[in-house]
Amino acid sequence: MSIRTIMLIMLIAGTVRAVQASQYVSLWPLPQKVKILDLSFKLTSFNIVDAKESSAGSSCSLLQDAYRRYYEYMFGIAKRQGPRKSRLTGPSELTELQVWITSPDSECDGYPSVTSDESYELSVDLPYAVLKAPKVWGALHGLETFSQLVYEDQYGAVSISDFPRFAHRGILLDSSRHFLPLKVILANLETMAMNKFNVFHWHIVDDQSFPYLSRTFPQLSQQGAYHPYTHVYTPADVKMVIEFGRLRGIRVVPEFDTPGHTQSWGKGQKDLLTPCYSGSKPSGSFGPVNPILNTTYDFMSQFFKEISTVFPDAYVHLGGDEVDFTCWKSNPDIQKFMDQQGYGQDYKKLESFYIQKLLDIVTTTHKGYMIWQEVFDNGVKLKPDTVVHVWIGGGANEEMGKVTAAGYTTILSAPWYLDYISYAQDWQKYYKVEPLDFDGTEEQKKLVIGGEACLWGEYVDATNLTPRLWPRASAVAERLWSAKDVTDINDAFNRLSVHRCRMVA
Amino acid sequence: VAAANFGRYTRPKFNLVLLIILQLSLHTVEGVWPLPQSFTSSTERYPLNPKAFYFGYGRQSAAQQDCSVLDAAFKRYFSLIFPDYTSDNLSVSAGQASLNAETVWGALRGLETFSQLVYQDDFGTYFVNKTEIDDFPRFQFRGILLDTSRHYLPVQAILKTLDAMAYSKFNVFHWHIVDDPSFPYQSRTFPDLSSTGAFHPMTHIYTQSDVRRVISHARLWGIRVLPEFDSPGHTQSWGKGQSDLLTPCYRGSTPSGTFGPVNPVLPSTYQFMARLFKEVSSVFPDSYIHLGGDEVDFSCWKSNPDVRAFMQKMGFGGDFTKLEAFYMEKIVNITSALKKTSIVWQDVFDYHERVMLHIWKGTPASYKEELSRMTKAGMRVLLAAPWYINHIAYGQDWRNYYTVQPLNFSGTEEQKKLVIGGEVCMWGEYVDATNLTPRLWPRASAAAERLWSDEKQTSSVDEAFPRLQDFRCKLVRRGIRAEPLHVGHCKHEYQGV
After folding, report:
1. Global pTM?
2. Cβ neighbours of A1 in B, within 8 Å
3. What's a single GO BP term from this record (chain A) (predicted)?
């Protein structure tokens, strides 16, 4: 029985209607332009090579690594299953995929950025298939697409021209509510690449634990991690994540969320958090980062200096969400400061005061910053290249309108909180989201650079991360990559079912 | 509350006493789950030396060396208790613990409890506190349902689930083995059923030896395997390999090409069922068999002229429930003759004595009413309705499973005795080996305690939380991919992917 029939039969499991073959076979996300012709080829003693004219050669480890990886994906399964009888008739044999980086600067040894060119063209035809891309980032995506065609066992003549609709296509993982062992982070990066995601938003620390081992302030994780040896990310671990991501065209954007969400920071850094008061005496508990002490800003300077050297991406995410003012209100020194500054009872002004100083600090490290929407909503003065992250459900559309009207680039997460699980096929509601569905001009809509699927960690760790995130995040992947009019949910179901089995394999 | 001797096994009861006297140090073991009926422990603790520790048969024990169940259990529990220790050097130690049980099944439960009492300090030394435990289950029947038709579950996944069941003292594996989407059970008598009805005739089937493996693995854990061959509904996959079994649906006066439930009017149906159940009752040694009987859609029967004619002949009028009851009774007679007691879903409100009802529908209001009604009619019942844990939701939904009160319905004491137990159901529409384990555990463990422990002692969700969290870390340590309850960490995290 052919593999294809096997796959189709396997997929009738647990679904209301049977999976049918899509005319786009099982490509996911759907490329911008696909033309599949009726000829079919046999792949024998196949090779992936650099085209003669390519600006990237054998010294480009990013591509060489990828060739090996994709070869294993495509033919590894076949090898494990033993030699098959060839079912395809016809004398045409395809022996080679040539990869041709057309731009003089392939960016092979560089890091991906929000402005990277991720486009590619794939043409599968005799005598050899050709993958053309201006930069290596497009080549990586083209290899993924090619491997999806081969998996389907129906590698016919194909002509594909592809590029992403949105430049920022991210996944947020939370390694503070639960520690995530390195293996699961790396496996997730692998799966992201199969879905053409290109940003790993690493929400690395928060209230519950501080697993990031800082060179400058090692006591942060010493005191703040769930366990100082077994539940930390060493500098080597972090390097590994960054490089593993780079080789897959994935940016690693760290988030160090302040002034709220910082309970774990205070364990290793005394005086960083605001002491809360019960009447006139300290209560023993602590609140957000203390915005009135100079030591706070000295600390942040040194800390973010380190972060800017450890993480090569052009952006850091600074958080700024859900700041609870009750502790600040209770503290007499803060009350005095508020009076001095003339803020009255408006603690949003104090929050903005802190954020402003923080943003200025981060600017000196030559990084752009991303912030959660509250920072924008509270009227903080932001640099023009700030990315505003819209996450609050209910009213997200208006927010998108407001943020873009103010001229800031924005990314959308509000409808894509994948940690909110529910029974049955909820991937459909993620698929149906249209990020540009808000009132605004064409210019405004251009400021929406993409979105992120968030998997907050309150109920997630290595035991259930992978099945909880995938394939539901794949729905978001297509929404962010494919054209706006790719909305046929039935066709999506057919392709996604196969794509899911492919990811399992 | 537990009923009298029942099924194959006597009620497992055991007590556990630890007598060694050594140093004093403060530690409380959180995660003993389910909570034993009577549990006294002190802070006095004793170190355990894996080199010197061994399980032995007491001199007065009716079971001795060569008792397969206990020999295997000793070996298994040794590595569960000392996960860092790999050799099995045995010699005599100074102190002694004693575990008394009426049967080996009780001993298994006691070994599980003992294994949960042992803990390690930060340096890796093993300890157990001075403890005295008297334990027995509140309910006899504590089951987990797995559905291997909506998705095929590899045998390994089933065996792993059995292991995890034993850790929570579940004792029945309800194997919903076939259904509409696929027929993976490879029948000796009717091999076409799986060769045409399985998702794949080679890779997605359970051979006779697979089934034997599951049954023997379960037996060594003290777990019964209850097979379910659901009919007359839920049988689409049966029709592929057994033509004429299913009712042909009609559109007007011609067959439409589709098929409905099992055809209750043909004698060939009952000949087939008799042969199939003869095989099933010899393959599966448990004295119970689940016949299904749920969600029968009458529209196809209605459309078929032969069925309508039969209805006339039998004087059923337009009442298809009578036809369904007619069919079910014939099947129950078949299985009765094979000396099996039948369990059916509540849809079949029958009156046969060798029948037990499985209540699965609805909100507390409706299932409580059903419990009252069924027990009033003198029927024994199993409760599944509040434990459909395939219905996932955001947050700590384990609390809903924990706070179920199975006997909180209006009825006499006698009636309440007819509630034999309950079952956690993990239907397979959205579940396969990629997500079965984290979806099942530790949420099913919440139900496990409800079915084993004393309700008064286990009514506080707040008290249960730290224990269940700790127990969950134990499961992870044992290689069970149990998902987290809430924020936090385990000393030993899950290292797989």
Report:
1. 0.89
2. 200
3. ganglioside catabolic process
